[in-house]
Amino acid sequence: MVERSELSKKAKIWEVETFPGCFSREWAVGDMYGPEGDPYFYFGPSWHVDMNLINEEIIDDLKKNGKSVLSVGSGRYGFLERFLTDYCGVDKDKVVLSDNVGQFPDGFTSYKFDFTKEWPDVGRDFDYVLMPESILLSTRFDLELPNHIVDRLSEDLLSRVVKSSYGVLEPSGQLRMSGLYGVRFISSVEEVVRQKFPKARMKYEKSLLLADMGE
Ligand SMILES: C[S@@+](CC[C@H](N)C(=O)[O-])C[C@H]1O[C@@H](n2cnc3c(N)ncnc32)[C@H](O)[C@@H]1O
Which domains are delineated in the chain? Predict the structure, then answer.
């Protein structure tokens, strides 16, 4: 059994109370919301805390240090992003949403774009880019393909996405991407990214990728 942090416990209480019927009351592995007819699952903020996609330090940065975040593949409910604003007290102008399905919760600045293609210039840079379970490498490619081809395609996509995120990050900013299950090729991605960003650094731990420009 995983030891849950105080933040995770608070997030669980908040998500159960705020979105009745979406998440189970008790913490459960794989606790996610799967609306009928929707191809995607959606995760409560407690999940993202448990994955260390967000933590107290990041929340403090957003709340007290004027830092900002772009959430890529936020989804139409914005559970995590609403937790940051409505529960944690982060200003709404510090939290920007994006997804290729152009539906977003009210009151947020949001952009519709496909993160596998060129990212738009939205006229500002961010301190964090979060990709909360949105890269979906394990389901994105045809599972009939041989493993080495899937790895090659995934590596190429990941390298492009990391470089695109650097285009909207402050030089000292960080990409935090969750949902990279069992990835074997992070060092190759780092090599490719370094052709454009020579000091780029990546850390991959427990399906979370942390990447920055090394500035
Ligand atoms: C598994 S859901 C996760 C949603 C949300 N981040 C969460 O944690 O609940 C994946 C999300 O990624 C978005 N997504 C998938 N492929 C995308 C793409 N190529 N460009 C932008 N968004 C994408 C989907 O629309 C969906 O909202």
Answer: 6-212 (3.40.50.150)
Q: Is 134 in the pocket of ligand 1 (CB under 6 A)?
A: yes
Q: Which two tokens stand for residue 137?
A: 């490498």
Give the three-state DSSP class for 94.
helix
Rg for the chain, CA atoms, rounded: 17
Residue-wise pLDDT for 21-64, tens only, equals: 898 877 666 678 999 999 999 999 999 999 999 999 999 999 99
Q: Are 12 and 46 in contact (CB under 8 A)?
A: yes
Nearest to 176 by CA among 188, 162, 164, 163: 162
pLDDT digits (tens, 9 = 90+) for 91-116: 999 999 999 999 999 999 999 999 99
Ligand 1 centroid to residue 10 C-alpha, Å: 24
**How many Å lie between the centroid of ligand 1 and the Cα of residue 116?**
11
Cα of 75 to ligand 1 centre, how many Å?
Answer: 5
- Does the reported pTM lie above 0.90? yes
Nearest CA-CA partner of 23 in 102, 74, 80, 70: 80
